[in-house]
TrEMBL record, chain A:
Its cofactor is [4Fe-4S] cluster. NCBIfam families: rSAM_link_UDG (TIGR03916). Transmembrane segments: none annotated. PANTHER family: ENDONUCLEASE/EXONUCLEASE/PHOSPHATASE FAMILY DOMAIN-CONTAINING PROTEIN 1 (PTHR21180), TYPE II SECRETION SYSTEM PROTEIN K (PTHR21180:SF9). It comes from the Bacteria. This is DNA modification/repair radical SAM protein. InterPro entries: Aldolase_TIM (IPR013785), DNA_rSAM_put (IPR023874), Endo/Exo/Phosphatase_dom_1 (IPR051675), rSAM (IPR007197), rSAM_sf (IPR058240), RuvA_2-like (IPR010994). The lineage of its organism: Bacteria, Pseudomonadati, Bacteroidota, Sphingobacteriia, Sphingobacteriales. Residues 61-198 form the Radical SAM core domain.
Length: 418, 253
């Protein structure tokens, strides 16, 4: 092994892949039944980058050579960067050896387009196939589908990969036209449509024939870049909602644009990464997927942007004061989930614990409720509760005043979900 | 009158203590791991002698009262080895025995709540170890990792590592508690290693395969490459990987 050469390739091709933010390795159910190597189920973060992101997968490009010229991408044809390409065997060896040392959960393989879509996709698929069939590898494999790849290759990819993704890149077609003139949305949507149907069909087959092969068990996901084009949050979330509904996507990732290139179509190089906005979009996304919120309740024509100062759940609550206060000891789970300061786990615990006895403030706090926010919206077994008739904007001010700088929009801190 | 029970800190010891509580109809009890010798004047003190048969009887009874998941959670909480919390475990078990209904989800009760917190802490440590173990390949093809977890989580790691690394021999060694797990491609067993023989660092390095250094080097490079400097957030980084874990993390050494 030529260590220097491999090191150089790894540096170039990991660096070029890092702007794809998705790193999830969960949602698959691949077991180690053949006494081979690995399994894919739990989605472990093995390390964290210095910017606090999870490192779960070996995330690399097969090559950063590309025939396209997408404005936002460091690998675009017209950018003067060092180019490199791995061989199939090199990617396989790196994956296996990193996995055996417990560095990673598996491989996330993407690529610039060399020659054409199928030529590139065929190599990605070959790597996945080699890992599965020659190395008995059951770890997680996420393949990026190359827009415009044929159905046959997508089908084969689904047989070996746990997750497949096609990046929409821009939230709207207009945005895409502006920044990625070589791409068209139809080419991206076609493989998504194919996968959606294939996944449904294979899942049905699997119900009938236990031995039927598993097909992309962790489903498909996509990524949109935020802040490179002028779409508002409503357009971003409506579009995400559309793809969740129509293509059964498991995840939509929102990637705050990191200015890496000077281009008149793009934000200037000194623009800061819209990290708070990115975080608010994730929070809104969670509300849609786990908390039973409809997209229109979070953003709409009169409310096109998420409030950067407060999370979208608090935002909804103060716009809908008529729904509160909620009696913690009586309200149904759906309503408890809508209370600011109460997360999924706390809501579950409340509903379980109140069967034994009514809960008071102290117990709610122990259960994990963030009372500094929740107290304005709930009553419980106590005579003490917020009696003042506060308006939504009062509450917002109180909460902002009692929480530290983490709610202020200009900090560079990445926030937690609720 | 308060009775102080001294037990050996094992799970069986804890269950035996429960047996004594009911056998001797004790009221207020203070359970502690070692004899602290404090104000012996006004209290009863008793040494609990761990007894497997008695422990098993208690365990059987407990399984009638709470689910098997609940028993597993109690065991996990016990692995926190927090001296001051032996009484929470005892309180939980007594509450479970004394209630007509299953109390596992009664989070309004302080023992149930405390046990659930302990379980959360131990499970978090278990998950951290599943993430932070870094194997190094030895010349005989065994993969070795040293760990120093906050809690005694080695017993909870068996299932995960055995099913994941079924086709390689591995050792995970708890350097703080001085025992380890060894998987020989078929079974796992507890082992202890004598590090006295490998006093010289050169001996340790010589035991690794040649490509071990190469892959460590590549992994460190990878870790540096994926960082996005314009998003730097040290606070978040350290919250995810507290500094005490760094010395066993290849990418942080
Ligand atoms: S096709 Fe992909 S790799 Fe090529 S320039 Fe566009 S985004 Fe970059």
């Amino acid at each position: 092994m030529n260590v220097d050469r491999i090191t150089e390739k790894l540096n170039i091709l990991a660096d070029a892949a890092k702007y794809d933010v998705s790193c999830a390795s969960s949602g698959s159910k691949r077991k180690n039944e053949n006494k081979g190597l690995g399994n894919a189920s739990n989605g472990i973060c093995h390390s964290y980058t210095e910017d606090g992101r999870c490192v779960s997968l070996l995330k690399i490009l097969l090559t950063n050579h590309c025939i396209f010229d997408c404005a936002y991408c460091v690998s675009r044809k017209s950018n003067d960067v060092q180019r490199a390409a791995f061989t199939v065997q090199e990617v396989v060896d790196l994956t296996i050896n990193f996995y055996r040392r417990n560095y990673i959960e598996g491989l996330f393989l993407s690529s610039g387009i060399f020659k054409d879509a199928d030529y590139t996709m065929e190599r990605l698929v070959r790597i996945a196939k080699k890992l599965r069939t020659e190395h008995n590898f059951n770890g997680y494999i996420h393949l990026k589908s190359i827009p415009g790849a044929s159905d046959e290759l997508m089908n084969e990819a689904g047989l070996y990969a746990d997750r497949l993704s096609v990046n929409l890149e821009m939230p709207t077609e207009a945005g895409l036209k502006l920044l990625a003139p070589d791409k068209n949305q139809a080419d991206m949507i076609k493989p998504m449509g194919y996968l959606k149907n294939a996944i449904i069909q294979r899942t049905e087959e699997k119900k009938i024939f236990k031995k039927a092969p598993i097909f992309a068990p962790a489903g498909q996901s996509t990524q949109v870049i935020i802040g490179a084009t002028p779409e508002n949050d409503s357009e971003v979330l409506q579009s995400a909602n559309y793809f969740y509904k129509n293509f059964n996507l498991k995840r939509v990732y929102y990637s705050g644009y990191v200015p890496v290139l000077a281009d008149s179509r793009l934000p200037a190089l000194n623009t800061s990464v819209p990290m708070v906005r990115e975080n608010r979009l994730y929070q809104a996304d969670w509300l849609m997927r786990f908390y039973g919120f409809k997209v229109n309740e979070i953003v709409n024509d009169s409310q096109p942007h998420l409030d950067l100062d407060i999370d979208p759940k608090l935002g909804w609550a103060i716009r809908n004061m008529q729904a509160f206060p909620v009696d913690i000891n009586k309200a149904d789970l759906q309503m408890i989930l809508r209370v600011p300061g109460i997360g999924l786990q706390s809501a579950q615990k409340i509903v379980s614990a109140r069967k034994f006895a009514k809960l008071n403030w102290d117990q709610l706090k122990k259960i994990g409720v963030a009372l500094n926010r929740a107290k304005y919206f709930i009553t419980c077994k106590s005579n003490e509760f917020e009696r003042r008739d506060l308006t939504g904007s009062n509450i917002k001010q109180f909460i902002l005043a009692t929480s530290q700088s983490k709610y202020l929009k200009n900090t560079q801190v990445q926030l937690n979900l609720f | 009158m308060m009775t102080t029970l001294i037990y050996d800190g094992t799970f069986e010891g804890l269950l035996t203590a429960v047996f004594e509580v009911y056998d001797r109809r004790l009221g207020r009890v203070n359970l502690q791991k070692s004899d602290l010798g404090a104000n012996a004047l006004f209290e009863d003190k008793m040494q609990v002698i761990t007894d497997e048969a008695r422990a098993n009887r208690v365990l059987k009874g407990l399984k009638q009262k709470i689910s098997s998941m609940g028993v597993q959670r109690l065991y996990a909480a016990h692995l926190a080895e927090m001296d001051s919390d032996a009484n929470s475990l005892l309180g939980y078990i007594r509450y479970a025995f004394d209630s007509a209904v299953n109390i596992e989800e009664d989070y309004g009760n302080r023992f149930v709540m405390r046990v659930s917190e302990m379980v959360r802490m131990v499970r978090r440590e278990k998950h951290r170890m599943e993430a932070f173990v870094r194997f190094q390949k030895l010349k005989d093809d065994t993969f070795y990792a040293g760990i120093e977890p906050d809690f005694n989580v080695l017993p909870l790691l068996i299932r995960h590592f055995k099913s994941r690394y079924a086709d390689q021999k591995w050792i995970i060694y708890d350097l703080r508690r001085k025992y380890g797990l060894y998987y020989d491609l078929h079974h796992t067993q507890y082992i202890s290693l004598d590090f006295a023989n490998v006093a010289k660092p050169a001996d340790v390095i010589a035991a690794f395969t040649e490509d071990e250094g190469i892959y460590q080097h590549l992994w460190k490079n990878y870790f540096t490459s994926v960082n996005i400097p314009s998003r730097k957030n040290t606070k978040l980084h350290v919250r995810h990987i507290p500094k005490r874990y760094w010395k066993h993390l290849t990418e942080k050494i």
